[in-house]
Amino acid sequence: MKRSLFYFIVIYLASPFLSYSQDVSFTKEIKYIDPVDYVDDLFDISKHFDEKKIIAVGEATHGTSEFYRFKHRLFEFLVKNHGFRLFGIEAGFGEVYRINEYLSTGVGNPKELVSDIGFWTYSTEEVLDLVNWMRSHNEENPSDQINIYGFDFLPLEILKNVLTLLEDYEFEGAKYHKDLPDNFKKYYVVSKKEKKALRKTIANIGSEYRRFSRRNTIDSKDHYLILHHFNMLDQFFSMSNKKLSRGYYRDKKMAENIEWVMNHEDQNKMFIWAHNNHIHKKTYFLNYKSMGQHLKKNHGQGYYALGLTFNQGYFNAIDYETRKLKEFYIRDTLSSSLGSKLEVFPYNNVFIDLNRLEQKEKKNNYFDKKATTISIGALYNPRYNFNKSEGLSKRFDGVVHMKNTTSAVQIDERN
Description:
Blueprint: H1 2-22, E1 27-29, H2 40-45, E2 54-57, H3 65-82, E3 86-92, H4 93-105, H5 110-115, H6 125-140, E4 147-152, H7 155-168, H8 172-176, H9 181-184, H10 192-215, H11 220-240, H12 246-264, E5 270-273, H13 276-279, H14 291-299, E6 303-319, E7 325-331, H15 338-341, E8 349-353, H16 354-360, H17 366-370, E9 372-374, E10 379-380, E11 387-389, H18 392-395, E12 398-405
Helix pairs in contact: 3-6, 4-6, 4-7, 7-11, 10-11, 11-12, 12-14
């Protein structure tokens, strides 16, 4: 009797994993990470992208080469096979605006533009390769252009850009305030009074421009672009005044900026590049919404969240103690980790259809409910555990999991 009970318990506990080893219908092998001519593996998963308006692809760290290269590969595939022409990245609007000008005109040095993107996370050779491919596409397809936008609101380049736009229309305030960007370089060390004065000055310029636009002929697309610059500057000031909810406010405004970009470019499809923590569909602590949840609310089934995860490898991050960029190595050894649960699959890189998995395992989805994944932002302290418990199908529609990864290559580090 005791032996029978023992075997029953073993089989019961192992049954979730046995079922996955027998049924791999919710997984597909990703054969290549880099853009290559072979695309059969992407065609195998492309049905999930049909009728999608926004495909948001995440990353478990901000410094992993394979994540960046796979995003390049996937976006290239979506351009060629699904009609995507709009690319959004979790970087400053002003910095990426200059890259977008380069894509359309060819004016500028792409290496310098990517190096000056505003975040170390994307000043990499992988992003440069993507930008070079985009430019090649636009040269070969002058009537079918790709556009790239940042949807974060770093203030300095936004202010520089809007003053340049205003000067093009001979707006006197632009010349009068041409030294204003220098004030942002010391924004975080000046008094609250000086910060308020800076915000008021910029708000007044915006009001002056609105009056100016009613008296003068402004191209409608330029007009709304100028207004959006002022809106993003206000987003920055508002976020600076928040404390506990600062990150959640940023997510909300990044979602709004994505919506603005789609309307501005009159595009109904957009590829999004951001961290897993931004693109996922689940509510944060205290009922705060992620960027992905805002987009999901607006687009319903038209929003697709694809998380990128890994089991072990190198990555770049800011060292918590030295506050300098450094290469780290991490290996996920937890038995609850997604990598451990995928050991039964013979793939180095695997796509998991979480929507199908949820349908098949509604009653006993141990794999989905208990699986943990590594989640590391821009700052890293190796003394702490960075495994996150995730109800995966509540956060993502799909996941691409990679067994081994390497760190992204910073500009000028490639041999």
